[in-house]
């Protein structure tokens, strides 16, 4: 069975947000949230890029369903054990605020829920089994999300 990669789920959620914008009454959020939405998109993109660069520098695997090569704990990974999922979620939240869309907020929350219960749970089991005490120590001092 082919596994749904996080960037694909992110893209599907984003596309669904733009489709939901056409639903009458979906744009019920105040326009004052657009500035915060833009800031959330920018912060999310910064986290995504910074985390990807750190994986590249460590020459380790970035793909969710492939075996981790190294435990990356520096940089943005000092703030969050999962800055890429946090980045994806912030971008979706920001898009929802920019679109002023209540259904889009639900899609951002759904992405965060799937990321937490499926992707993150899978990755953390694998990291615990591969890196043992080193991962447990890292997890004890670093928040899951932020």
Automatic annotation (TrEMBL):
UniProt xrefs under InterPro entries: Phopholipid_MeTrfase
The organism's place on the tree of life at top rank: Bacteria
Transmembrane segments: 35-53, 85-112
Topological type in the membrane: Multi-pass membrane protein
Sorted UniProt keywords: Membrane, Signal, Transmembrane, Transmembrane helix
Secretion signal span: 1-19
Compartment(s) of residence: Endomembrane system
Protein name (database record): DUF1295 domain-containing protein
Organism, as annotated: Caldimonas mangrovi
